[in-house]
Write a structure and sequence with these properties.
The chain is an alpha+beta fold. Helix content is 16%, strand content 50%. It has one domain (2-120): Thiol Ester Dehydrase, Chain A (Roll), CATH 3.10.129. The chain is elongated.
Length: 127
């Protein structure tokens, strides 16, 4: 995310917003934001939103996510807004919306739903 110059622009309990400026590093062949970049941004926004409900005792790892691309991501910037739908003891369910910002106007380009594993802090690392 640092390599793409993504910025954590807001983090509140159960929610997170990340912005990403347009650059050659994040485009596809038509010059739009690449779908993989959109998915990565949505995954991060949902994961950080989940962490606001778990820290400092636990963290989380993505178990799965589903993303619907609803419009081409044409613009100067992407904004991903993640929120927690349900935080349980072993799983957290989040959603995220990703907007392309063009000339100051936001257009919805993707919707994601995600499930994350709750990982207690200090858990052994898997080899």
């Amino acid at each position: 995310m640092q390599a793409w110059n993504a910025r954590l622009t807001s983090m509140t309990p159960g929610a997170c917003e990340i912005s990403l400026p347009m650059s050659a590093a994040v485009t596809q062949q038509h010059g739009y934001f690449h779908g993989g970049v959109i998915g990565t941004l949505a995954d991060a926004a949902g994961g950080y939103a989940a962490n606001t409900q778990l820290m400092p005792v636990s963290e989380c790892l993505s178990a799965e996510y589903k993303i619907n691309f609803v419009a081409p991501a044409i613009g100067d910037m992407l904004i991903a807004r993640g929120k927690v739908l349900k935080a349980g003891k072993t799983l957290v369910v989040t959603s995220a919306e990703v907007f392309a910002v063009h000339q100051g106007k936001e257009k919805l380009c993707a919707i994601m739903q995600q499930t994350l594993f709750v990982i207690p802090k200090g858990s052994p690392k898997v080899d």
